[in-house]
Write a structure and sequence with these properties.
The chain has six helices and eleven strands. The termini are far apart. Helix content is 30%, strand content 19%. By secondary structure, it is an alpha+beta fold.
Length: 253
């Protein structure tokens, strides 16, 4: 990947967004974002993130050389430095909404099914995405079609390079004895699926008086926050129990 000095980039004055490990800015006159891991103050303080940053840089360099994956994830463009110290990177700007905005039931099911196929395709390219949440998947509709991309690319597992920060649900899975493999990927998508689908389907909520009881759905819901390795929660996709044409068109809770 090419490198560029931060002083050569013209950024918008205010922050565009935040992540657990970063601050994100829009780049002026370009459809790009700058994701900053380190500030100049961090560098002057002899920051302790050196190993983490090095791991992220290696992952981005590997991602940039892979073919056929940028239909699903945002593309890294340039690494950014201050005096030859890596501070972050520029990436493609994808104009979309976070998953907590305006999603209808039908669109939710379609998106989750597409996301499952995306995770499989990424895995076939030695890219695993476990940090699936409201903020890390952006979507929009074009002519009634759901378009989306995964955006938190520097915290993915790429080749043999690890994640840098585990979301709480993945930390629980690892504590239960799980590994960062295909089973964890299934669990991660199930966690997101239950989070989104519970807004429409009361069977996924902890309510003892729910109608239309379904033992399999109840088991998924039971295991999502108390994961058991090599069980239903990391072997089957809950989204396979749903059809976008089901009569779940309004919030039931």
């Amino acid at each position: 990947m090419n490198k560029v000095e931060l002083s050569e980039i013209e950024l918008e004055d205010s922050e565009f967004d935040y992540g657990d490990e970063s601050t994100i800015y829009k780049v002026k006159n370009r459809d790009s974002l700058y994701k900053a891991w380190l500030s100049k103050k961090d560098i002057e303080k002899n920051n302790t993130k050196r190993d983490i940053v090095e791991n992220k840089v290696r992952k981005l360099e590997s991602l940039s050389e892979k073919k056929g994956i940028f239909a699903y994830i945002v593309k890294p463009e340039e690494l950014v430095t201050i005096d030859d110290t890596y501070t972050g990177y520029q990436m493609e700007y994808f104009d979309g909404e976070k998953l907590d905005k305006y999603l209808k039931y039908r669109d939710t099911v379609i998106l989750l099914k597409k996301l499952r196929e995306t995770l499989i395709k990424l895995n076939n390219n030695d890219v695993k995405c476990f940090d699936l949440n409201y903020s890390n998947v952006l979507y929009r509709k074009e002519d009634d079609e759901i378009i989306f991309k995964i955006i938190d690319i520097d915290n993915m597992m790429v080749d043999d390079l690890s994640m840098d920060l585990y979301p709480p649900f993945i930390a629980k899975y690892l504590h239960a004895g799980g590994k960062l493999d295909e089973k964890a990927m299934i669990y991660a998508l199930n966690h997101l699926s239950i989070t989104l689908l519970s807004m429409f389907d009361s069977r996924l909520t902890p309510n003892p008086y729910i109608p239309r009881y379904n033992r399999k759905l109840a088991k998924f819901s039971e295991l999502i926050d108390r994961p058991k390795v090599d069980s239903l929660i990391d072997n089957e996709y809950i989204i396979d129990s749903y059809n976008e044409n089901d009569n779940l068109t309004r919030t039931l809770i």
